[in-house]
Amino acid sequence: MEQLFFFNFSGRNLPDYSKKDFDTMLVMNGTILKTGFQLPFPSGPNVKAINLQNATVFAGFSDAHVHFTQTGLTRSGANLDKATRLSEVFDLINEETKTSDMALAFNFQEQSLEENRRPTLAELDKISADKFIWVARKDLHSAILNSKALEWANNFIPGLKHQNGFVSGENYNPISYKLLNEISDSLLLKGMQATEEECLSKGVVCIHALEGSTDSDREAKLAADFFKNNKLEGVVYHQSVDPNFAKKQGWAGFGGCLLVDGSFGTRTAALNEPYADSPESNGNLYLDSAAIQELLQRARTADLQLAVHSIGDRANDLVAASYAWARQKYGAQPLSDRIEHFILPSTRAIRAARESEALVCIQPVFDLFWGGKEGLYSQRLGKERAARCNPFKTMLDLGIPLAGGSDSPVTPIDPILGIHALLNHSNTEERIDLNSALSLFITEPHKFAGKNKTRGHLKTGYKADFICLSEDPFMVSPARLDSLEVTRTFINGNEVWGCHNLNRS
Fold first, then answer.
1. What does the pLDDT look like over 229-242, one tens digit per residue?
2. Do 84 and 149 fall into the same domain?
3. Contacts of residue 281, Cβ cutoff 8 Å, sequence gap at least 6
4. Are strands 142-145 and 359-362 parallel, antiparallel or unpaired?
5. What is the per-residue pLDDT for 4?
6. Domain boundary residue among 169, 198, 221?
7. Which of 80, 188, 215 is nearest to 134 (CA)?
8. Among 463, 469, 471, 502, which residue's beta carbon has the most beta carbons within 10 A?
């Protein structure tokens, strides 16, 4: 017998998400039947009435860029996020060695420490020379290894190059993927369960999960199976240059963080001009135009969307030009290709991205954490280039589609924090309005995955995915938007998280 839900609430609902404000929503089998004011109350034994008590209600949030299994893995190691000096780093790693032969530590940032430097190989060996120690930088583009971990890494890259235990760039990427193979399925599953709970508590009903590598589809399979059997909706991108696995799974795209370059923090993002704090370096370019064009040809042959990681201006020039080439050669696609990050695009790259109809997935919290005159971007790039990072309003004004993501575990899965970052951009000229910011975390991610006909709106025929907020964001000053909280989360009409009820099914 069919079950019918009755939702009674009042609150602001944006024109982008529904045709008009309403106080009643009828839901059957997880789909919205009707919305309106004071709809007739249905009767019958299978009717359930849920009063949302005048909550402010929006369609559920999405996060368009999450490394799901990797985020779960970080839950199993030492978290260095709050360390302020090396002694605290060493204490946390030491505690981890007491419970595991493989001591993993995450979220390391040298600029957050009083010493403003990395641990040395000798210092890690002093903690333990017999146990494996891996200290990952927050951007996940480098790590510091002790001798035991370096010995392990040499099995895959004989004569592995490192700087006093520090491994980055082309040496880091392959061994970081190999590390995942050392982690059991059960531990990854436990981490994914914790990450799902974090998503639901932040009002996230759907994520785009970027998983695996060219050498492995294991994590992509694990994530896809998890989404089939749990509450959270997931769109999986296999991070491989080969589209065949994604095609067999019936997915719409492949790629994700297929690295065209690296990161600013590790000085591996590819730049047209040298780093301000390292004049001998222009970063790393992992793919050239021929390689990107080959990926685009494979995508067109497989009829799939391509997504690649691109951060520095040199990389963005290359990717945007390649996408424009593909648009001219193959024509418009049902689902345009994606560029992940696009942090420092030149005017030329922005123009080419628009011409190619590229979809750009941005991470607004990057600017909140690392933007500004004294932030990491300024340290690495100098103030002039740093001011050109993350040009959100410029791209929106030119009609480039944007969707918001966290790049978790690099920044937290927290759309409210992302919306706060969009309205409080360090460059005042790149701040966007609240309505646009909400759309980047509500409707746009579904468009990027080709699912905008069923999710992202509160109207007839759409899935009943919605959230309750502690306050109406339109009644809150931009400076304190990050104080908003999600109080209840619903997926397919079922409550999956609520701060008022800890014993939820």
1. 999 999 999 999 99
2. yes
3. 267, 274, 275
4. unpaired
5. 54
6. 169
7. 80
8. 463
3-state secondary structure of 495: strand
Give me the sign of the Cα torsion angle 120, 121, 124, 126: negative
Averaged over 298-307, what is the pLDDT? Answer: 98
The answer as to whether 36 is a domain residue is: yes
Name the domain count of the chain.
2
Q: Six-digit token pair at 42?
A: 């249905």
The range of the structural domain enclosing residue 35 comes to 4-58+460-472+486-498
In a domain, residue 13? The reply is yes
Domain boundary among 169, 203, 238: 169
Question: 197, 205 in Cβ contact below 8 A?
Answer: no
**Which residues in 322-334 are b (16+ Cβ under 10 Å) and which e?**
bbbbbbeeeeebe
Q: Is 487 helix (H, G, I), strand (E, B) or coil?
A: strand
97, part of any domain: yes
Residue 148 main-chain phi, psi, to 5 deg: -65, -40
Residue 188 pLDDT exceeds 50: yes
pLDDT tens-digit profile of 134-176?
A: 999 999 999 999 999 999 999 999 999 999 999 998 899 899 9
**Peptide bond just before 158 cis, omega within 30 deg:** no
Model-level pTM? Answer: 0.93
Residue 408, strand partner residues:
66
